[in-house]
Design goal:
Elements: E1 2-4, E2 7-9, H1 23-35, H2 40-77, H3 84-103
Antiparallel strand pairs: 1-2
Amino acid sequence: MYSCCNTWVPRMTEATFTFRVDEALKSEFAAAAKARDRSGAQLLRDFMRDVVRQQQGAAEHDAWFRHQVQVGLDAAAAGDLVPDETVEAEAAAWRRETRRKLTGSSS
């Protein structure tokens, strides 16, 4: 750990990631990195961070979705239901409004 701005910050530990790649792909990747004024290692780290972020976002969304489904199941089990006629009437009104917007009419 080291001190920064009177706050203790943990040091980032580094690890080496080694893998095999086709020479042509390596050359093209290096050229693409150079065109972006970045090193290949910087781009790979960025990509890895993006993948981790996407995975975390997907996991969070999945947890939220599962919770919403459970809320709905619990409400249904408790008899807290919306009558079919109400749902159909709201859907019909939504369809009419959408058609009106798509056709640009005001009636």
